[in-house]
Amino acid sequence: MIKKVLTVAGSDSSGGAGIQADLKTFEEYGTFGFSALTSIVTMDPDEGWSHLVTPIEPDLVEKQLKTIFAGAPLDAMKTGMLGTIEAIEITRSYIDKFSMENIVIDPVMACKGTSELLQPENVAAMTRLLLPKATITTPNLVEAGILSEMGDLTSVEQMKEAAKKILNLGPKNVVIKGGHRLNTDKAIDLFYDGSEFTIFEEELFATDFNHGAGCTFAAAVTAGLAKGYSVEKSVALAKKFVAAAIKNGQKINPFLGHVWHGAYNHAEDRMNEK
Ligand code: PXL
């Protein structure tokens, strides 16, 4: 049976992050994707590509989850941008009601291109209601600094300390993405399972065409878990998947370049007329 995977996240109307990244990634992994939309992000080319986040009515979030969970059990799920505290509460209630396992919490707090953070009270609700249910959480350096209350993280040693603090919030595993924000010549991710630290390294690509990288990484981990891979293997494979996606990033419009979710599997070659 094909594995079923859910994303509870926002729509990135520009096509690279959010549920668009998630569903494309789920498909690349050969899993069957579902989505419950929590918000819609739009960008205005007439206003310097400024972002607007419009939350979905909580009642409509619930209706989507009811539809999705009506079928056979899901194999894994992830959360991304969560529009409202109510959406967070509803998501938690479905996790409990259906005894969901294999849960990836991507603690999205801002979009690139906007300094506007998610409401602090949303972050608090996500921390309280969702992190304790997480198989793994996938903060970037900024998000890890906020969750650990350590502020700026500038070294692997500090990332280790932050990972310990984040694990105390309840997730079973944490991976902190150093990315381009850590001033290293490699893209370094730190994985912590509560007993051991593992460093994952990939080439750091000098590209701006990396919109959607974070969502794609978390979605790849989720699909890996759905397929029955261990948490560590899911992270290792996700890292390779997203590295290929960044390396083959595409300039999508005058403002932005996106990761290419199909790069790892050379999806651009599919269905070509021979
Ligand atoms: O990359 C963070 C992110 C998450 N979710 C949605 C987004 C973005 C950034 O644009 O639009 C829906």
From TrEMBL:
Q: Which InterPro entries match?
A: HMP/HMP-P_kinase_dom, PM/HMP-P_kinase-1, Ribokinase-like
- Which enzyme type, at the first EC level? transferase
Q: Which CDD domains match?
A: HMPP_kinase
Q: Which Pfam families match?
A: Phos_pyr_kin
Q: Which UniProt keywords apply?
A: ATP-binding, Kinase, Magnesium, Metal-binding, Nucleotide-binding, Transferase
Q: Name one GO molecular function term.
A: kinase activity
Q: Which SUPFAM superfamilies match?
A: Ribokinase-like
Q: Does the keyword Metal-binding apply?
A: yes
Q: Which domain of life is it from?
A: Bacteria
Catalytic activity field:
pyridoxal + ATP = pyridoxal 5'-phosphate + ADP + H(+)
Q: What is its EC number?
A: 2.7.1.35
Give residue ranges for domain Pyridoxamine kinase/Phosphomethylpyrimidine kinase: 12-257
In the record, the note on similarity to other proteins reads:
Belongs to the ThiD family.
Q: What is this protein called?
A: pyridoxal kinase
